[in-house]
Design goal:
2 domains; five-stranded antiparallel β-sheet; 250 residues; alpha/beta; 32% strand; Rossmann fold
């Protein structure tokens, strides 16, 4: 288990390392970070850790600024002296929310909770891989409402699905944008995975609409879709780059 610690107080980070190493768990401490900026840079340039222990108040802001800047796939155990952020924490990748001073038993319970969740996730992924061998009927068109009228859009005419200001939209092949009453998670289940790929938390793209793929950084890709303006910066999230390449290389 590879663990990253995000904590701006040296004594606190040292205590966490000591408590973790005293557990009967095989783990590797990848490092300790003290600021929002350093955390964003590290996560953008390294493989995702298995688990993150994260303080709320950091040197240059609160940790939720990290979640607003990048997509974090790793589960998080929050370790903080402030109880008012608990609800906000559980809206992201939270495994547990521990108040300082950290109780060793509570930390152990939180790590055990992560390990249990991780084990169930692996089983779920195995089941999903089997289910993909026997896919159900994929959606062929989406019904949208335009004023008092309804319009059916074939999936072959959709360049991408995307989220903007918490609403879901279709961008069509002819350059029109329509609101859609589905979440991206639901759309992901309904469309053909051979045709569509979710490149990040905000975009699902159609393979036939991709006209260019460019290396954006050491671990990111930028794609360009036909008919979509440069206003939308389409980046394949770091965690999905390898899967995206495999999807493109069929």
């Amino acid at each position: 288990m590879k663990v990253l610690i995000i904590e701006d107080e040296k004594p606190a980070s040292n205590k966490l390392i000591r408590l973790l190493k005293n557990m009967e768990v095989s783990l590797e401490i990848l490092g300790t970070l003290t600021s929002v900026e350093d955390s964003i840079n590290w996560l953008n340039n390294h493989p995702a850790p298995d688990l993150i222990l994260m303080d709320v108040q950091l040197e240059d802001g609160i940790c939720f600024d990290i979640f607003e800047s990048i997509e974090i796939q790793s589960p998080v155990i929050f370790t903080t002296a402030y109880d008012q952020y608990a609800i906000r924490a559980f809206k992201v990748n939270s495994v547990d929310y521990l108040l300082k001073p950290i109780d060793p038993k509570e930390l152990k319970q939180a790590v055990d909770k992560y390990l249990s969740m991780h084990s169930r996730t692996e089983s779920q992924l195995s089941l999903e891989s089997v289910l993909k061998m026997f896919p159900g009927k994929r959606k062929e068109r989406f019904l949208i409402k335009i004023g008092e009228h309804f319009k059916s859009i074939p999936v072959t005419d959709i360049d991408c699905f995307f989220i903007e200001e918490r609403c879901t939209f279709i961008h069509s092949r002819i350059g029109k944008t329509y609101a859609l009453d589905y979440s991206l998670e639901k759309i992901e289940e309904l469309v053909d995975p051979d045709r569509f790929f979710r490149i990040n938390r905000n975009f699902i793209v159609n393979y036939s609409a991709i006209i260019d793929v460019v290396a954006y950084s050491s671990s990111r890709l930028k794609i360009k879709l036909s008919g979509l303006s440069e206003y939308h910066l389409l980046l394949v999230s770091r965690e999905r780059v390898n899967s995206f390449k495999e999807w493109m290389d069929r």
